[in-house]
Request: fold
Amino acid sequence: MELEQILPKDIERRSFEIITKELGDRVLDPVNASVIKRVIHTTADFDYVQNLVFSREAVPLALKALREGTPIVTDTNMGMAGINKRALKKWGSEVYCFMSDEDVARAALEKGTTRAWAGVDKAAGLKEDCIFAIGNAPTALVRLYELVKEGRIKPRLIIAVPVGFVNVEAAKELILSLDVPYIVARGRKGGSNVAAAICNALLYQLPFPG
Amino acid sequence: MELEQILPKDIERRSFEIITKELGDRVLDPVNASVIKRVIHTTADFDYVQNLVFSREAVPLALKALREGTPIVTDTNMGMAGINKRALKKWGSEVYCFMSDEDVARAALEKGTTRAWAGVDKAAGLKEDCIFAIGNAPTALVRLYELVKEGRIKPRLIIAVPVGFVNVEAAKELILSLDVPYIVARGRKGGSNVAAAICNALLYQLPFPG
Reply:
């Protein structure tokens, strides 16, 4: 196997060409294609062609939310590190992760729950509706489900892509039952990297504002 | 599909039970098993049973390096965010990512290469031999290969797990040809999350020093 001579700036374009070629006859919904392809680019895993489920108009609604400067709340520092903050800042937005916050740790301890659960509660107190990018904690999805059902929050988008073996699939199914915009990675697979990739795939569809 | 009632502290243990059960008859080398299982825990992808290749004694040599406070150099801020820095600090060590450093950006621009490549050069200038945890950039692996071949560095461990479609597999094969301790995810799969998971799987095998 030989190394291909390629300029750094051309690697991403070439990668997407390979992905498109290997998708072959599998037809992607053109509205969702760039999200699906970027997740494959991040994972080298074509299972996401089947796994990713989009609510109706999820992508255009998410793009509208991002243009309006909607903040992103994520459940891991890894996810936060992976989201393109420069692109986000151009739209007057930013990304929050409350997992290391002292008040969140205290609330989780008091209530015998996870910090991810308590972090969603904290996000519910923000003055704006948010985009949630959940790549790790099914408990964050459960709490989002409860707060939406109680009418206490109206997420602009829920990216529900935790990875794992315990309660991950069931928690994602809860989100699939909601009447909010969502992008869900059905099944066990996902991760903070997938959550960040979806955020970036959305951001890269917006014109880079001057 | 129902949510299982489980305490937050028990989720990880339960996840590893499920992984062990689903591995079934597949026998893992006991020395490498906890690394392999943690990567599966991070990805929900059992392909890593086949993909992960360990040089002889890689795990015990890595544990020795970590006990001695060997620093970890990684090629992404996501990887850095995912590594358990509290565990690392207990052994007097830390993790570096040079990707955002101005001198690295300048060197990459001057040489027409990637910041990952230039970042490895910067790591080569550290006074200690390092553990390299490369989850993203095949160019970092190519540069590591060159510097090892030239006798300029002696990595204590190379974790070679970039994900992707261009030069990723070939760059990993270069590392497999080296006479240094390595853990390689053969093929296209991997990622910053996998790099961090391997570092953590190693750290969690050490006694938590008082």
The longest strand of chain A covers residues 131-134. The CA atoms of residues 159 and 197 of chain A lie 11 Å apart.
